[in-house]
Amino acid sequence: MGRILRFTPKWRRPARGRRVRPARFAKRRTSWRAAWVSMRPAILLIVLASMAYIVALPGVMPAPAFLSSEPQVIEGRFTRCGRGRGYYCVIDGDTFKLGKTSVRVVGIDTAERDAQCPAEAAQAEASTQALQRWLNRGTFRMTARLDEPTDRYGRALRTIYRLRPDGSEDALADYMQSEGGARGYWGGFRGGWC
User: Fold this and answer.
1) Nearest 5 degrees, angle CA 181-CA 75-CA 155?
2) 81, HSE (Cβ side, Cα atoms, 13 Å)
3) What is the pLDDT of residues 79-117, one digit of tens each?
4) Is the pLDDT of residue 136 over 90?
5) The dihedral of CA 88, 91, 94, 99: what is its sign?
């Protein structure tokens, strides 16, 4: 059997001392539709993870409107909880009572009344006064997630807000973070106040 010789035309042969470079192809541009189709699984995963976070930690953030109950309108004068308290009273900077129901404000954390140091006690008192001031400004609304979650202490978790004359919302959590010494609460570990 003989060897098969391949003939390369002269115009395809590299010049002496030159290297042959492989052919380069231009990159294909991806259309918007193809990019959208390839990104759909990642977007779906992000949406599902966000929904799982909202469901798993109900005291962290307000539920979206489609997962919220009808607003309950509250009007009354709030006192401090203790001897001789009224129907409406304030326990601390993030909790108040409506009769026998304890309500925890969603999205914030404040210093506790049973303080570990004088700085925490002062911050707890300031937060409690700020909450009482906001609640006594007038009628406000409360919404809950549709499944009506409670925290580990049995407190009802609610989003509290008031409608301004221009139709915008005055959220209690925002007020407490700016004026009442509260911190945003995103679940998990809560830092100290001392």
Assistant:
1) 55
2) 19
3) 998 887 888 999 998 999 999 999 999 888 888 888 788
4) yes
5) negative
